[in-house]
Each structure stands twice: as structure tokens, then as C-alpha cells.
Amino acid sequence: MGFCINCGNQHHDGVRFCRFCGTGQPSEQLLARLRAEAEQIRLLRMQMQQQQVNAQNDAYARLEAMRQQAEAATQVNNQQNQQYRPPGW
């Protein structure tokens, strides 16, 4: 089932003219081409979304590595501070 490109009423596939408003409808060839293009667009959108997810995951992984490095540096600094005794103590 399809819909009229002018009035939006539903009609059977393959009709050449809308029975409600008389507007000519796209051919089956054009509809097949449009459906194929729509599928390509859908696939491209899915690929782009996956790339965005991968980029976000990479950014999170880099942030986590930086956090771990900062935590390790803080621990080393704390250990050094505990071992340090100013002269005269």
C-alpha cells in the first residue's frame, strides 16, 4: 500500500493516479530507486552512528588512562611527602 504524493490518501501499489485527487503517482521504477537510496542512507547513518560511538569509547578510554596516571602520580607524590623530613626535625 502506498500514499498519494499530493493528498496523502492511501492507495494500492502500482496505481498511476490517485482516485481521490487525480494526481499522477510515481512509477514503480522510481519508487524502487527511491527505496534503494533510502536504504543506502539508512546504512550510512548507522555507520556514522557506530563511528561516533567508537570515537566516544576511545575518548572515554583516553580519559580513564589519564585519570589512572594522575592517580598514580598523586600516590607517588603522597609517598614522597610522607618520607620527606625537613632539616632539623
What do these coordinates show?
With 89 residues, the chain is mainly α. The protein has one domain. The chain contains 1 helix and 2 strands; from the N terminus they run ββα. It has one helix at 28-83, and strands spanning 2-3, 10-11. Strands 1-2 form a two-stranded antiparallel ribbon. A hairpin with a 6-residue loop joins strand 1 and strand 2. The radius of gyration is 32 Å and the shape is rod-shaped. It starts with a strand and ends in a 6-residue tail after the last helix. The model has no long low-confidence stretch (mean pLDDT 93).
Keywords:
two-stranded antiparallel ribbon, 4% strand, 89 residues
Total count of strands: 2
Number of domains: 1
| Strand order in the largest sheet | 1-2
Measure the end-to-end span. Answer: 91 Å
- 3D shape: rod-shaped
The description of the largest β-sheet is: 2 strands, antiparallel
How confident is the prediction overall: mean pLDDT?
93
Structural class determined from secondary elements: mainly alpha
Strand content: under 5%
Number of helices: 1
Task: Please bin the fraction of helical residues.
Answer: 55-70%
Low-confidence stretches: none
Rg value: 32 Å
How do the helices and strands line up, and which of them pair or pack?
Layout: E1 2-3, E2 10-11, H1 28-83
Antiparallel strand pairs: 1-2
